[in-house]
Amino acid sequence: MTKYQRQTRLLIAVDCIVFGFDGQNLKILLIKRGFEPKKDHWSLMGGFVQATESTDQAATRVLKQLTGLEGVYLEQFQTFSAPDRDPIERTISIAYFALIDIHLYEKQISDEYHPEWFPLNKIPELIFDHNQMLALAKQKLRYKAALHPLLFELLPPKFTLPLLQNLFEDVYETTFDKRNFSRKIMSTGLLLKQKDKDKENSKKGAYYYKLDKKHYQKNFHKFLHFIPNPNGFI
Fold it and tell me: Residues 116, 24: one domain?
């Protein structure tokens, strides 16, 4: 027997959700779909898994083919398997997400499929169940950011509190009072104040800080008190 009998054949796809930070806002990378159905509609970067590759290999290949991006760490986070999610054939999609510095990768971006960065509050209607994928990826990102110094990797080695506040407000889709944000973030003891200031964005200047990575994992529970309802993002 060379095949399992009386079993339905299914297609397996991968979809890549790429978040990027440009120094001011967190954004999502989208492309114009190149074939029917839904040709020219906005879409995540997706494609089918080939017979000779793993889903991880497929995600890496698809992302490079559709956007030009390579060397990006992709993390698998959920499978989407509703029977009617694709109107053509039964297709199960395995979703991956990544978080990158937009400026670091901007020269790699290809124009072939018209990739474009969208702020999280201006996402267009996406094909199939891609809006659902994105919503769940945002929840995953928020949860991981509360437990690990994930978001700090998008910042320069030295950063100001206003820049840090911009990033966290975008990720958690909320607004922090400037004074309360500074007080709470400093109360964690996880930031190391530097001697120099950023004087380009304000007359008075804002001090630079660095993340104390040595003590982050040990004291992450202090940071959880700062995150709005972190248990809601699991």
Answer: yes
Range of the domain at 143: 11-147
Q: Within 13 Å, how many C-alpha atoms sit on residue 226's CB side?
A: 24
- How confident is the model over 122-151, as pLDDT tens digits? 999 999 999 999 999 999 998 888 777 778
Token duo for residue 21: 């930070």
Q: What is the dihedral of CA 178, 154, 43, 136, to 10 degrees?
A: -70
CA separation for the pair 78, 38 (Å, rounded):
23
Task: Indicate if 140 and 159 belong to the same structural domain.
Answer: no
Return d(Cα 106, Cα 21) in angstroms, integer: 11
For 180, residues 6+ apart whose C-beta sits below 8 A from its C-beta are none
Which tokens belong to 173?
């889709």
Determine the angle formed by the axes of helices 178-187 and 161-172, rounding to 10 degrees: 100
Whether residue 3 is contained in a domain is answered as no
Last residue of a domain, one of 147, 175, 199: 147
Q: What is the pLDDT of residues 58-113, one digit of tens each?
A: 999 999 999 999 999 999 999 999 999 999 999 999 999 999 989 888 889 988 88
SS3 at position 70: coil
Strands 159-160 and 206-211 come out as antiparallel
Whether the Cβ atoms of residue 161 and residue 185 lie closer than 8 Å to each other: yes
Rounded distance between C-alpha atoms, residue 228 and residue 84, angstroms: 35
Our count of domains for the chain comes to: 2
* DSSP-derived secondary structure letter, 95: E
